[in-house]
Specification:
Length: 321
């Protein structure tokens, strides 16, 4: 973007209400390397689909706060419903794994995303047939399914096989599957040979090793992009300072965490009637976002050894069941 144009864009935020700024924040789209790679792979899969090759998709493994919602929102903006003469076409359908997760629940979830009035049917065979017919009728090209880890979780169980076979049949309607979930979603995909062959690729989304120079550098570039787009009149240019590192480690390097810190810091800044983020705003943002973990606030000046805050008692400690 031309510098002068960007400056004019930022100027429009002066004196804007905080609600309007948060609505602007909702429109921010951060294209980072893993995001771009997933989009490029989807484009390749869509191209192969046109050639009537066997439709294939991929699994996106994403940690909590890693950017799944942003990716799904991007897909919905890129492939919106299209009104034809007598029907609404749906190039994309997307939903989260329903509970209970069985062919009936999955069929109803597909029908619900299409706006079908009979999406709550109770006859499994009928709903499965209706879902398959609708997929062809409204010309579905992409099936995006979130929280794949919520499919019955034990490796090799009958539940995994039945659900895997359901997805296999949908994919065979020349639909490209984009499956999203945590690392445990691999169990679902790899436990069904038919599904695995149709979803042969696994990519990471929002997983950068911030303890490596490359991972840290990538996250600092993401911080800079958020800073570019933050709905304030002035850019704070924190990415090249120690505050940039504090944002990375104070968010555990996740997109959702970085976004949350920016939101809270922006709110604190505007509450003071200012248009430039200050250290105190970041300090407040961490304390509010991670209330109860104030002792680990990284937005304090002084020498330190940067590390993940993932030890027992720290904000990003993962308790394993």
């Amino acid at each position: 973007m031309d510098v002068s144009v960007h400056h004019m864009t930022r100027r429009r935020w002066k004196d804007a209400p905080i609600m309007e700024r948060h609505e602007g924040f909702n429109q921010i789209e951060i294209v980072h390397p893993q995001f771009a790679r997933a989009v490029a792979l989807l484009d390749t899969r869509m191209r192969m689909r046109k050639y009537k090759a066997a439709a294939m998709g991929f699994l996106l493994v994403c940690p909590p706060n890693g950017g799944k919602t942003s990716f799904l929102n991007y897909l919905r903006r890129r492939y919106p419903p299209v009104e034809a003469e007598d029907i609404s076409l749906h190039p994309l359908i997307g939903f989260s794994i329903p509970n209970p997760c069985n062919p009936l629940g999955l069929s109803n979830a597909i029908l619900e995303d299409m706006g079908d009035p009979d999406a709550g049917g109770s006859g499994a065979r009928t709903q499965i047939r209706r879902a398959n017919r609708m997929i062809e009728k409204v010309k579905v090209k992409i099936l995006a399914v979130d929280n794949m880890q919520d499919v019955p979780e034990r490796r090799g169980t009958k539940g995994v096989q039945i659900v895997g076979n359901f997805f296999r049949d949908v994919i065979d309607c020349n639909v490209v599957p984009v499956l999203l979930g945590t690392q445990e979603a691999n169990v679902v995909v790899r436990s069904n040979d038919q599904l695995r062959r149709r979803v042969p690729s696994t990519l990471s989304l929002g997983i950068y090793d911030i303890m490596t120079p490359k991972g840290l550098s990538t996250c600092l570039r993401i911080v800079d992009r958020f800073d570019d787009e933050c709905p304030l009149e002035r850019k704070s240019s924190v990415a090249r300072t120690w505050i940039g590192k504090a944002i990375v480690y104070g968010s555990n390097g996740t997109l959702g965490g970085i976004s949350g810190l920016f939101r809270y810091a922006m709110t604190a800044c505007v509450d003071e009637g200012l248009e430039l983020l200050q250290l105190r705003h970041w300090h407040t943002a961490f304390n509010q976002l991670y209330a109860g973990f104030e002792d680990y606030n990284p937005f304090v000046e002084g020498e330190r050894k940067w590390r993940r805050l993932d030890q027992p008692g720290e904000p990003f400690f993962l308790v394993k069941s």
